[in-house]
Amino acid sequence: MRSVPALAAACATAAILAGCSNDTAGSGSAPELPAATTEATASEATAEQAADEPERNERGNIVKQLGEEAGFAGFGGQVGDDTNVLFAIDKVEVDPSCDQYGMAAESDRTLLLHVRVATGSSAETASMALGVLNPYSFSEIDANGVTHAAESGMCTDPNASITMQNFGPNQKYAGTLELIVPEANGSLILSSPGMEGGWEWDY
Hints:
Number of strands: 11
CATH class: Mainly Beta
Helix content: under 10%
Radius of gyration: 16 Å
Protein name: DUF4352 domain-containing protein
Region (Disordered): 26-58
Structural class: mainly beta
């Protein structure tokens, strides 16, 4: 039985960045992601562009390209304000080399996501990042259209994992996220408990 991190429950208060609205806004500028360090080119979309109502697919997810920013706000947040958490998945490595003491998946495939995160001024919203960006929030759609829940892996360096971070306000992070899924290619869905819809990437 999978154990979803306790912080995932806090994500019931989170709203998709481009789909939330509230009368209360932050007083500072919106957070900015750290520069991409992988081959993927980060999206040039600004917070103002992201504020437009996003287009969702038939599963209710916002479709993203690798390197394109996404994000969410908690209660009291508003699209594009200084309380949001932004993130981007820049690259997906399939079956990467394992760490010295790592263990590859026996029959499934390992995906290593390269992730950047930027938090805003709200410590409460920043603390939700770990509940959103963890392996158990992901699922994979295979070539037959069947959705499979992702699991956590033990192949790559755990010290590089974004899940090792203690997300605080007004900070930037970069790291990896290891998933175990049935197939090497497909679509990834990220959707935490309590969220209406989520995000989706083809890889």
